[in-house]
Design brief:
- About 40% of the residues lie in helices and about 20% in strands.
- By secondary structure, it is α+β, with helices and mostly antiparallel strands.
- It has two domains: about 50 residues, Winged helix-like DNA-binding domain superfamily/Winged helix DNA-binding domain (Arc Repressor Mutant, subunit A), CATH 1.10.10.10; about 80 residues, 2-Layer Sandwich (Alpha-Beta Plaits), CATH 3.30.70.920.
Length: about 160
């Protein structure tokens, strides 16, 4: 799918202001409401826009401690990776999980009430059949910066003819 400058601007605005009104969005990209909204619908139908969400501040609702974990598996084959990744997908305490290169197989961000809950979670992973060889735990003592990244589009989706 090729995107023109209007599509790109729509995506950038919706990425940062998902609750903007139709007229506000149209005004921001300098189009009338109908053509602007047709573009939004096309972006939704094509799957470029997957949905709209609210960012909730969990710290206001309940106290959790973030823990960063480096995880290495005993075996490096598709079955081992799929088993581990399925377990992480199904674990509500795992907020983020990244497969990485360079010596560590995965980096996780785990959110628990306290360190005791975290350790019980890791103990359950170690006694299950996840194939964990070793892990390193890093307790987050202070968050310095946390924000959504800016929307950057690949040059191959941009249609400069508009």
């Amino acid at each position: 799918m090729r995107l023109d400058r209007y599509d790109i601007k729509i995506l950038q605005i919706l990425h940062n202001q998902g609750r903007i009104t139709k007229s506000g969005l149209a005004e921001a990209i300098n189009l009338s409401v109908s053509p602007c909204w047709e573009r939004v619908k096309r972006l939704e139908e094509s799957g470029v826009i997957q949905g709209y969400t609210a960012r909730i501040n969990p710290d206001l609702l309940f106290k959790r401690s973030p823990v960063l974990v480096e995880m290495s598996l005993k075996h490096h084959n598709i079955a081992a990776f799929e088993r581990f990744e399925a377990a992480m997908q199904g674990c509500p305490e795992v907020a983020e999980c990244y497969a990485t290169g360079g010596g560590i197989d995965y980096i996780l961000k785990v959110m628990c009430r306290d360190i005791d809950q975290y350790q019980r979670l890791v103990d359950s992973w170690l006694t299950s059949d996840l194939g964990i060889e070793r892990y390193f735990t890093y307790i987050v003592t202070k968050t310095i910066k946390q924000q959504e990244s800016e929307l950057e589009l690949s040059p191959d989706v941009i249609d400069d003819k508009s």
